[in-house]
Design a protein that fits this description.
This is NAD dependent epimerase/dehydratase family protein. It comes from Devosia psychrophila. InterPro entries: Epimerase_deHydtase, NAD(P)-bd_dom_sf. The chain is α/β, with parallel strands linked by helices and 116 residues long. It has one domain: NAD(P)-binding Rossmann-like Domain (Rossmann fold, 3-Layer(aba) Sandwich), CATH 3.40.50.720. Strand 4, helix 3 and strand 5 form a beta-alpha-beta unit. The longest helix is centred in the first third of the chain and has 12 residues. The chain is globular. The termini are far apart.
Length: 116
């Protein structure tokens, strides 16, 4: 069953592949970006231009929701996470924050080796 999916930051790297796959599977995709990087999705996506670190702008941009699913490719700080938690609380069925190995940078020199 097609879902309404919001992808925050979907013009490069993993996000671009994710958006392409969602389109291929027939989902209604909304792409939220700063509007800096071009994409080649044509009319296959709705676009929202928003600074994801601007709490008020995020609230205004997504007040129309709801979305079945949100993929956040641009959550890089506790502030980013707090804004998303506030904006999408109660109006999203599932919220997925993707990340990279960079989140482990602060423990790189410790005994814990998460990827051995």
């Amino acid at each position: 069953m097609p879902k309404s999916v919001l992808v925050i930051g979907g013009t490069r790297f993993f996000g671009r592949l994710l958006v392409r796959r969602l389109i291929e599977e027939g989902h209604a995709v909304t792409l939220a970006t700063r509007g800096i990087a071009a994409d080649d999705f044509g009319n296959a996506v709705e676009r929202v231009r928003v600074d994801r670190r601007d709490r008020e702008a995020m609230i205004v941009a997504f007040a129309g929701g709801p979305f079945d699913l949100v993929y956040n490719q641009m959550c890089y700080s506790p502030l980013d996470a707090a804004i998303s938690a506030e904006v999408f609380a109660g109006c999203v069925d599932r919220y997925v924050m993707t990340s990279t190995i960079e989140v482990y940078d602060h423990i790189r020199d410790t005994i814990l080796r998460p990827f051995i």
